[in-house]
Amino acid sequence: MPRHSSAPRAIGDLLARKTPALSQIDDQAARQAFWRSWLAAHLPDTLGAHLTGAVERDGALTLFVDSSAWAARLRYALRELEPGIQAARAGVVKVAVRVLPRA
Q1: pLDDT tens, position by position, for the chain (103 residues)?
Q2: What pLDDT does residue 94 have?
Q3: Using CA atoms, how far apart are residues 24 and 18, in angstroms rounded to an integer?
Q4: pLDDT score of 12
Q5: Res 26: pLDDT
Q6: Cβ distance 46 to 93 under 8 Å?
Q7: Contacts 24+ apart (CB under 8 A), 51-54
Q8: Which residues, 6 or more positions from 20, have their beta carbon under 8 angstroms from its beta carbon?
Q9: Distance from C-alpha of 62 to C-alpha of 60, rounded to nearest angstrom
Q10: Do residues 48 and 39 lie in contact, with contact meaning Cβ atoms separated by under 8 Å?
Q11: CB of 91 within 8 A of CB of 61?
Q12: Cα(89)–Cα(70) distance, integer angstroms
């Protein structure tokens, strides 16, 4: 039977360790914050207000908006922004738009 350490650990100490899973979550959160900031600076305010999320993974940037009408508008606006998106993150080769209503 394996023995566990007898000393209790504070939850803060456990969370402070960089496990692979926590590192992935931290990296994804940083990428989301980067894209929210970048898009806020480059999209019209009316369109940016309908953005509900951004996920960058494996060379693809997926942007989420709250309705299909705003998804169409965002797709149209992205035609002009794609070179800037790729300049901001050279690894992004594909941009997709999906609908994700606010909860």
Answers
A1: 556 666 777 777 766 776 777 778 888 899 999 999 999 999 999 999 999 999 999 999 999 999 999 999 999 999 999 999 999 998 999 999 999 998 7
A2: 95
A3: 9
A4: 72
A5: 83
A6: no
A7: 52/100, 52/101, 52/102, 53/100
A8: none
A9: 6
A10: yes
A11: no
A12: 24
> What backbone torsions phi and psi does residue 17 show, to the nearest 5 degrees?
-70, 140
pLDDT at 24: 83
Cα separations in angstroms, 88 against 49, 91, 95: 21, 9, 13
97/78 Cα distance (integer angstroms): 9
What are the DSSP calls for the chain, one per residue?
-PPPPSS---HHHHHHS--HHHHHHHHHHHHHHHHHHHHHHHS-HHHHTTEEEEEEETTEEEEEESSHHHHHHHHHHHHHHHHHHHHH-TT--EEEEEE----
Residues paired with residue 56 on neighbouring β-strands, in sequence order: 61
